Amino acid sequence: MHKLFSCLAVLLIWTSPVARAGEFVVEITKGQTEAIPIAVVPFASAEVTAASFDVAQLVSDDLARSGRFKTMDRKDMIDQPHTGANIGFDDWRRLNNDYMVVGSMQADGTDHYSITYELYNVLTKQRLLGFQISANRPGLRSAGHQIADAVFEKILGIRGAFSTRIAYISVLGHLPDKTFQLIVADADGENPHVVMQSHEPLMSPSWSPDGSSLAYVSFEQRLPTVYVQTLKTGDRRIVSSQAGVNQAPAWSPDGKKLALVLSTRDGNLDIYVKDLATQQLTRITDDPGIDTEPQWSKDGQSIYFTSDRAGGPQIYKVGIRPGDKPRRLTFQGSYNARPRISPDESQLAFVTQENGDYRIATMDLRGRGDVQVLTKGHFDVSPSFAPNGAEIIYASRDRGRGVLALVSADGRVQERLVSSEGELQEPAWAPF
Amino acid sequence: MPGFFREHSWPIVFSVALHGLLAAGLLAATLISINHSLPTMQPIPVDAVVVDSQVLHAAQRALTERAEQEAARVRAAADAKAAADAAAAQATADAQMAAEKQRAAEEAKSAAAEIERTKQAEAAKATEAQKVAAAKRAEDAKRAEDAKRAEDAKRAEDAQRAADAKQADDAKHAADLKAKAEREAELKRQLAEEEHVSAVEASPARAQYIARLAARIQNAWIKPPSARAGLDCIVNITQIPGGEVTGAKVSQCNGDAAARQSIENAVYRASPLPAPPDPALFERNLVIHFHPDE
Amino acid sequence: MKQVLSIALLMAGAVLLSGCPKKHNVIEPPTAGTQVPGSSSTTPGEGASTSGRALDGDAAARGANGLAGATGPLAKRIIYFDFDKSEIKPEFADVVAAHARNLSSHPNVHVKLEGNTDERGTREYNIGLGERRAQAVRRALLLQGVAESQLTTVSFGAERPAVEGDDEAAWAQNRRVELVYGP
């Protein structure tokens, strides 16, 4: 065996280009994780009227908001080419751009636009993308998001999430007359649509895996009740309305089951799984503590949840087969709750309390379980991963008001996303 | 009617010829302009000038005849002048040659002196270089000694640890490993002999140059999410003196398209590469081996 | 014929569906008598959780559930809690006792125990905390002779603050269980 090894070693040394005699070999073991500089040049739009839409600005804003790109300010652009033939690459390189997007938009016919765009690597002068998209006026935002997705994926190798949606709760008004709204909007916070409204609290929106429905909790019957609503039709049905608590719905990956929190007569909260077709209820945890906030694993065989069985809330994982014992995952600090896994289950996001502040943290599920606190606020709660795993949306408080904010999954970039007159809370990012 | 023709034969012929040429010329012009109406780099005015001179040439033949006569007269005068100039030029040339000969002699003298001076300067430089080299050698020796001491200590520590771990192994295991190490050491020695190792190349200056290059490229490499530990890629680059990267080619690479693009971009972003501490170290062809720790 | 049948089925389905939510065995909401007028499961506008609410309402209703002319501990309908705690503090012991006596002497009277928390922490865990506080009051009342059928618990977690604010003064007012008398 060792003879074989040494023979292979000989072969490797002789054939490896790295070790060729006389050549200079430079070993690179580190890189940077900074934002990639890109310039999105305003698209030519000679025939387009003022009523139409600045697609290039939307593309630029999307890329900047992802935290992965540093977009060039328009006022710094001394030239505005619209096709690759007109790009003076050396000039753009001198302005420190690695990539650039150029394009044009024209109106052909009433309410019909044709957008042409190209993505260039400024360093190698290569054209990486060239496409044409057609859209009507209401579809121009969507076209812009598609362009941002294509550019994002081409450069970073992961799918863009700019064309996805978010759901969240908005609370308007003051005591004793509040209005609660369940809202679905674009991932950038635009185009909000109220899908459910009530004068009693709404909580815990949860997207079905196919993105067609939302499960949520409504107090409209003066008790927490779990509903499932189909977005396209507005039809909804009650999934659970037992006496006591019906809470925290979470869809299984195959969309056939909902994990729920139900209470026993003496108020003990535990996790159950309800089969949506058969209505059969299976008890998952049985413990005097509060067991809540369930979240399915990617293979649908386990559930992450919050439990204070050890004194304060911590995060556990339990298999759904009868007899499986929960395994504790968090050990740092006295308050760790609200687990959410990234789409590839490489990371767990949760709420952790440090020195009285509630912050979003992530745990590395694939490596050594390293915990990283991502945010710096006082009340950062309700994390939800983007479907490409690159970002986390969460609820925060800014100057006394509830707002929605974004942080990149590695914690490098943070920004506020949506704020409105209402108090915004409990965001949930839809799947692709 | 025929009389008219006979009387004005020359003018008529001349006129017909002129009109014919005009027509021909116009036709030619049209054809040329058609051929040049498709997108080209040539500006149109260049063709127009040619056409004009063609048309004018025929009308000017009479004028040129007169001009030729004049030219002949001028030429005769010029010949005479040229002869006189030649004689004068010859005289100046002779004088110049004499002066140059003298200058050459003087230059030779000063060159000799210069050579002498250079020799002396070089001798001084050599002694200086020797001194520097000696100092460097002493420093290197010290550094090598320190490094060796540290290395020995580490090796001893490592060996101790390895020995402790190996106590559980078979004696055969240890013997096989020893044989394998010996064979590898033999190979390494053979490779080293085949390398063109000059005194300069084996020095710390080379290591310093490589370190500078690595730092520059590391700073310039923006890693996409897929460029994690496990990525193993090679980019062969060519640079010109001054450090500008003129070519980059990703050869072996186990990364996805985003990772490949990022490493190719990295070497261009790092351009111009830093200069070596010693110009003799400059290498046109570099092999950049990307293998991130995380 | 087929068309008529399918239309009839559709209409029947619509009727059934519209009746669905009411099929479940939920506790009837309190009548307008003890709440701010106009509140029921179908009309909007209520939700008041101010500490003054308990003193509003019909005198008649009060008479029926033993609260007529209530002064002293019985007039207090809210029990406050310390942060992250669900134990009933000693200063509220006689409030609980007073209500226990009232309820056990009026066995037809029903009370809803609404548990609340301050806004800190995660919302769903707070539902659990609110429920735990409501249960603490429930157990205390049961121990003092109140029948199980007279008590219901509900948790609103952090969703129904009595006082809005980001400081301890507000939070202290929100960590509470309210005793809401019903029929």
Question: Can you describe this structure?
Answer:
The complex is a heterotrimer of chains A (432), B (294) and C (183). With 432 residues, chain A is mainly beta. In chain A, 11% of the residues lie in helices and 44% in strands. Chain A has helices spanning 2-15, 55-65, 89-94, 140-156; strands at residues 24-28, 36-40, 69-71, 99-107, 113-121, 126-135, 165-174, 177-186, 193-198, 202-207, 213-218, 225-230, 236-240, 246-251, 257-263, 269-275, 281-283, 291-296, 302-307, 314-319, 327-328, 336-341, 347-354, 357-364, 371-373, 381-385, 391-398, 401-408, 414-418, 423-429. A five-stranded mixed β-sheet of chain A has the order 3-2-4-5-6, with helices on one face. In chain A, strands 9-8-7-30 form a four-stranded antiparallel β-sheet, with no helix packed on it. The relative contact order of chain A is 0.09. Mean pLDDT of chain A is 91; it is low at 12-19. Chain B has helices at 2-7, 9-35, 45-59, 61-166, 171-194, 204-220, 257-269; strands at residues 233-239, 245-253, 285-290. Chain B has a three-stranded antiparallel β-sheet with strand order 2-1-3, with helices on one face. The longest helix of chain B is centred in the middle third of the chain and has 106 residues, at 61-166. Residues 37-52 and 196-200 of chain B have low confidence and may be disordered. Chain C has a four-stranded mixed β-sheet with strand order 1-4-2-3. Chain C is built from five helices and four strands, in the order ααβαβαβαβ. In chain C, α3 crosses α4 (123-143). Chain C is globular and about 40 Å long. Chain C has helices at residues 2-23, 59-64, 93-105, 123-143, 168-174; strands at 78-80, 110-116, 151-157, 176-182. The longest helix of chain C has 22 residues, at 2-23. Chain C is an alpha+beta fold and 183 residues long. The chains are: A mainly beta (432), B mainly alpha (294), C alpha+beta (183). Chains in contact: A-B, A-C.
